[in-house]
Amino acid sequence: MNEVHQQRLTVAKSFELSGLGLHSGVPVSVRVEAGEEGLFFSDGIGRWEAIPDNATDTKRSTTIGTVRTVEHLMSALAGSGITDAEVQVTGGELPGADGSALPFYQAIASAGLRQIGERTFPKLFSRVFFSEKQASIGISAGTGQWKFEYQAGNAWPRLQTFQSEDILADYGSEIAPARTFALEEEIPFLAQLQLGQGLDETSAVLVGTSGYLGDVRFGDELARHKLLDAIGDLALSGYPLNAINAVLIKSGHSSHVAAAAKLRLIWQSFFNQSRP
Hints:
alpha+beta; Ribosomal Protein S5, domain 2; five-stranded mixed β-sheet; 16 strands
């Protein structure tokens, strides 16, 4: 079979979340409404499709147009199977919530899903590979098996690995709750750059030189959260994430978005070639 079929899903009803921006620390809000044209972000002035070409910044988070830190909501949308939605953001940034994608995932579940059609994609025939410095990403046709290797060099924990055999089945319980994290030694630097101002000890995992400096939800929460981010960033490709297998090693937002762009280009090229 040379095609991949995906249900097009949107939210059955709108929902809204508010809080402090993850990095800015100022009050922000997001409203997610049903859509039929794909995934779009708007700030009241501009409107941008959630595709790699519209990623304007990938330092410490992913920005689409002028909307910052979209990766946790994008991850929750992808993990829920949402393909179409209108996302309206006030304040220029998504709420940091509890530092994970769980509040977004739960809001989507409460809103419910509505099918609006079906999409057909060409099955990947070649492996998509991207490498940048020490980061590498390998993507192939598959069944939703995803693996992330978080490497810290000589620092604790040196290596954490999390693997899912079914990314959509595992998402809500095994991936969505994993929170963002920071290294203790980075705190002064982050404060100087005015990053992470919307987080506290309950919404961010703090990592010391010999272990966690607080309670964690998972022993391997670092690797799980990195996978959470990767899901949100690679969803920009528009390709069904349960129709690929992915192995990510020491990657971040920049390499994720670059890999998403490469994947999008490949499947669109196949699609265009198959047109009469």
